[in-house]
Predict the structure.
Amino acid sequence: MPSLPRSAYHAAIFVDYANLHALLADRLDAPKQAAPRIAEALSELRRYLSAEDGAPPLLTAAYADFGALSGDPGDLQQALYHEGIEPHFVPARPAEEAPQMQLAVDATALAHRSPGVRTIAVVTGDRTFLPLAQALRGAGTHALVAALDPPPAGEFSHTDENLFMELATLLSDETRRDLTDNEGTPARRSEGERGAPAHHDRLDDEMLFRTLEIAEEHFGQYDEVYLTPLLRKLSDVLGERFDPKALVSDLEDARAVRLEKRRGYPHDYTVLIVERGHPDVQQMEEDFYGDARSRYERGGGSPSATQASLDDASGYDGNAESGESKPTGAGSENGAS
């Protein structure tokens, strides 16, 4: 693949819509709910590819015989267009696998003719698309298969196992609960997923409130925040004097946030979840969404007071690469790597 500037790389998403729709409709026991849940997962996948893979998607295409799906096929295709998803109508007769085959043909052709497409993600219900993934890698393209039912660990070689992402990690908690309730067994949940802690420690440093405000301002529309872009944003806003990892670690120690691992490609990743029940988080939200200025800016109402707040927090000067941090008056373990 020709060398291009990082900003020139993009991703493309190909959706095995018929297979995924059928599996979700069966699991949810509500066929009309399958389409909005797929749109939800695709929206989160786009965000993941942009934030973690550095390849914003330029194409999302869905393949199905839409006339064979439940509901009005015209309404469904119109809804896909509205979500920025390009529907590809492929008759399922005489060959039921025709949509899957057309998807593979189009994905392979795109990989060969578009050097700027660095990653191709295939979204499916329970198919592996292993031959397609291997062909894409042979063309020098990263391949990812996000499946509702990925193959169990150990079924393929280590190299091929790294192709798969659990689609459930892209779904909201509500959708995962619905899948759990209707299936009668626990839905797949990522390592470390748990309920909100019963005990909270109060935040004792204004910079921790400021960190929460930055997360709310730039990522508050999401239930889960990708840790890497959050750390980057904290560095941009706060400057080199403060160690973003130490700040996040102290918030985690106070149980104002929690960090969870997710299975991803080409590597696993971490998300941050704000504990909305924490009293200091609730206070931050009240201040942030009210007319009051930022706690960080208030500092008593004068420039000298604001500078004093900066000086009080200057202990956050740990070495992010080594993982060592020296926060003043807060926990010393850096668990935000």
About this structure: The longest strand covers residues 57-64. Residues 184-197, 292-337 have pLDDT under 50 and may be disordered. The beta strands are 10-15, 57-64, 86-89, 117-124, 142-147, 164-166, 225-226, 257-262, 269-274.
